[in-house]
Amino acid sequence: MRSSGSAVQVEDTVHALQRLAPGASLRSPATPELRLLAAALRDCAPGALASRHPEVVARVVLGAELKALRRAMTGFFGTGGAEAARLVRAARFGAGPVRERLREPGLRAAALGWAEVRGHRMLAGELCGVVAAPGEEEGRAAAELTVAALLPEVDAGEGGREVLGSEVGGEASDFLDVHSVRVGRRGFRVDVHADPPVELLRDRSGLALRALWWNGLGRVADDLGYEYLLLAKDPAGTGIVRHWCHPRPAPGARVLRLESAGYRGERQLLDRSSAGSCAEVLVKLELTVRLGA
Questions:
Q1: I need a surface site. Which of 164, 182, 188, 236 has the fewest CB within 10 A?
Q2: What is the DSSP string of 41-109?
């Protein structure tokens, strides 16, 4: 199973869980497997989960892949591609639990083709009758599922008290500016104004637009050594990116260190016959802000 593309994010979240500020209110995972993995992540990197608990990781990931298969069989979720269309056709006239339905040869073959294209190794092995050993990718996918089961829900309506004192500094201050830090009942919200450069230029390929798009914060820590969970990000389209963090700042903390998740670089050729290009620019920039009263 491929992770959701947020491997860096899950690594940062696990790092924060291992150094979490006091007062956090985490959820209890619903299954014994997820509870075991949650305990393991206290001192284990996501990619190492598969080597430490291979059977549990395999079961958790297989369960998620079967759930994704069940959704794809309906055709309602825009999975796309020839294999997905074949899967939907093969599943059209059946009913019942997905594992029982997969005994039908036509649906089983369609599901196998879909699983192989999607990178669902545990499911492909199950359909072939082969026990696939989970690797680092499955370990990260299991970590993502575990983290999702642990994190508290975001209270988007909570305002809170403004505590932003002054911006102390940071190497990203030319592009990023901390607009607000508001502490609520269960956590705090950080609003950052992002103004990355955009330029219009003409080169050998013609007229082009080059821009950087900010990916938001990646890690939040304080001067006491504690870290905080980033529960959600919301780029409101106004230049302000809002981040919901948990828990509240630790007693005695006076400075927050805000580490950028990096930038996405984009070069768009304005000639109709040319295509644009996009690439991730993983630049770790940091801002520091002082907390006021």
A1: 236
A2: TTSS-GGGHHHHSHHHHHHHHHHHHHHHHHHHHHT-S---SHHHHHHHHHTTT--S-HHHHTTSHHHHH
